[in-house]
C-alpha cells in the first residue's frame, strides 16, 4: 500500500443548504477523493460500520479526541470512511457528537474495494464492509499504513482494533515529520 496513489472515487454526500426550506435542508453533493486527499498531509481511517460497537465506543471517538494533536503535527484533515450511506454517516456523527473528524460515506464500497479492504461480513448480516485500517496520505499518495491483522471474510476475527488506533498514527507522525 505504501507508495500507492489513493483511488479517485466519487462519494455521494449530503450538505446543508440554507436555500432549501423545510425539515430537510440538505442537498446531494458529489465529493471526489482526489480533491480531498491530493493536497497536503491527511489521515484517513476506515471501520466496519456506523453504530457498531468498537467503531462507536472506541475508534471514531478516539480520533475525535486526538484531532487537535493531528492538526498540531501538520495534518490537514482527519477523515473516517465507512461503507455506509450519507444519511447513516450524518446521524452517526450527530449521535457521537463528532465536530472535527470528517465522516465520509462510501455507500457502494467503491473506495474501499479499490483500496483492497472490502470484506464480506454476511456472518453478522452486514454484507460488504471495510476491514479496519488507517493511513497517512501525503499529496494523494499513501505514506503510512496501519492495518488490523487477520483480514478475512468468514468472521474468525474478534473485530481487532489496535494497529489502526490514533496513537499508532500519531507515533508515526512524530517519527516522520513533513
Looking at this protein, list some descriptive labels.
178 residues, alpha/beta, Glutaredoxin, five-stranded mixed sheet, two-stranded antiparallel sheet, 28% strand, globular
Beta-strand residue fraction: 25-35%
Uncertain regions spanning at least 5 consecutive residues: none
Mean pLDDT: 94
Strand order of the largest sheet: 5-4-3-8-9
Molecular structure report:
This protein has 178 residues and is α/β, with parallel strands linked by helices. The protein has a single domain (10-16, 24-175), classed as Glutaredoxin (3-Layer(aba) Sandwich). The chain is built from six helices and nine strands. The chain has helices spanning 33-37, 53-65, 67-72, 86-96, 110-114, 166-175; strands spanning 10-16, 26-32, 41-47, 77-82, 102-105, 118-120, 128-130, 133-138, 141-147. The strands form three sheets. It has a five-stranded mixed sheet. Strands 1-2 form a two-stranded antiparallel ribbon. The radius of gyration is 16 Å and the shape is globular. The two termini are 19 Å apart.
Amino acid at each position: 500500500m505504501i507508495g500507492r496513489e489513493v483511488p479517485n472515487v466519487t462519494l455521494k454526500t449530503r450538505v446543508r443548504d440554507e436555500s432549501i426550506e423545510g425539515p430537510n435542508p440538505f442537498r446531494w453533493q458529489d465529493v471526489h477523493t482526489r480533491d480531498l486527499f491530493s493536497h497536503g498531509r491527511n489521515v484517513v481511517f476506515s471501520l466496519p460500520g456506523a453504530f457498531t460497537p468498537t467503531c462507536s465506543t472506541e475508534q471514531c471517538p478516539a480520533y475525535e479526541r486526538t484531532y487537535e494533536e493531528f492538526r498540531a503535527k501538520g495534518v490537514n484533515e482527519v477523515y473516517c470512511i465507512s461503507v455506509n450511506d450519507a444519511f447513516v454517516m450524518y446521524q452517526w456523527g450527530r449521535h457521537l457528537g463528532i465536530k472535527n473528524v470528517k465522516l465520509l460515506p462510501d455507500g457502494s464500497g467503491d473506495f474501499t474495494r479499490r483500496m483492497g479492504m472490502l470484506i464480506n461480513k454476511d456472518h453478522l448480516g452486514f454484507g460488504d464492509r471495510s476491514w479496519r485500517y488507517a493511513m497517512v496520505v501525503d499529496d494523494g499518495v499513501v505514506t503510512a499504513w496501519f492495518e488490523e491483522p487477520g483480514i478475512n471474510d468468514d468472521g474468525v476475527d474478534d473485530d481487532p482494533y489496535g494497529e489502526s488506533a490514533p496513537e499508532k498514527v500519531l507515533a508515526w507522525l512524530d517519527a516522520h515529520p513533513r
